[in-house]
Amino acid sequence: MRFRSFAIAFAVAFSITYAVSVLNNYALFTYHPAIGEFGAGVQKGRDGPAMYWYGWMATSGIVAFLAGVLAALLPESATRRLWPGLTWLVALIALAVLAYDLRQFFLK
Amino acid sequence: MNWQTVLLIVHGLLAVALLGAITHQAASVLLPASRPAGSFVGRFRAVPGPSYVNAVVVLYVVTAVLGGVLYTEYRVSVRTVVEQLGMWPAHGAFELKEHFAAVGLGLLPAYWYCWRVAGEARTRAALTAFLAIIVWWNFLVGHVLNNIRGFGV
Q1: How far apart are CA A8 and CA A21, in angstroms?
Q2: A67 with A79: CB under 8 angstroms?
Q3: Do B102 and A56 touch (CB under 8 A)?
Q4: How many domains does chain B contain in total?
Q5: B24 in a structural domain
Q6: Residue B128 and residue B111 in contact, taking contact as beta carbons nearer than 8 Å
Q7: Which of A9, B81, B95, B101 could form a disulfide with A71 if both were Cys (CB 3.0 to 4.6 A apart)?
């Protein structure tokens, strides 16, 4: 039962945090592929492009893990009604929002 | 042949294995065989879905990690060319691929759980279909981008 709560909360929190991180660029760190260096937080590219995807993943992973642990610690009576369908529904909405954000690439 | 090319081939082979496993499982849960399978399609649908769960999770994670390692080379060598050629739909499709891969990773614990318990049949089917769509999209987009501009040669 505890893993059920963890898994649902993790999936929902990950999808939401990932979408928010991408849209607002809340990257935990930046990777500079041209020089092979990492930098804390969001940074501009050094000698080439900056990569934020790893930082978005880290932000989302940490928030989702904390949300999952919190949900698993809640009493069973509070989490029993947690609908597992939220996992795919929230993920679907998050991807729809991100796809809409990328619409300019498909309309050029 | 440099290490990126070797890694890209391994990434592609793992993606093929993942594609096969998740497609088999999705077919078994969305279109279950109602009687003993006689045809190829019937046998394709009649596989025991639960036996694919661990393989799908492991293949998804390993394929995603390898994709993450290769992403740096894509960003420097491939994306620049795609942008210079003005191939915006291909560029957008790859951006979507990275989002699909990330959100799919977040779903894996719930997917694993739903296949481990007797209930949750609808969520199990939905999550399996969702992951199958993600894997198919990512496989096809990766293949198209590699056709546009492979790397490491």
Answers
A1: 20
A2: no
A3: yes
A4: 1
A5: yes
A6: yes
A7: A9
Rg of chain B, C-alpha, whole Å: 17
Beta strands in A1-108 (DSSP E): 29-32, 37-40
- Kindly tell me the burial class for residue B48, based on how many C-beta atoms sit within 10 Å of its own C-beta (0-12, 13-18, 19 or more): exposed
As given in the structure block, the two tokens for residue B67 are: 């994709």
Q: What does the block give as tokens for B149? A: 């501009």
The domain in which residue B14 lies consists of 3-148
pLDDT tens track for B85-126: 999 999 999 999 999 999 999 999 999 999 999 888 999 999
- In sign, the C-alpha dihedral spanning B104, B105, B107, B111 is positive
Looking at residue A87, its amino acid is T
User: Model-level pTM?
Assistant: 0.93
Q: Do A11 and B107 touch (CB under 8 A)?
A: yes
Quick count: other Cβ atoms within 10 Å of Cβ B59? 21
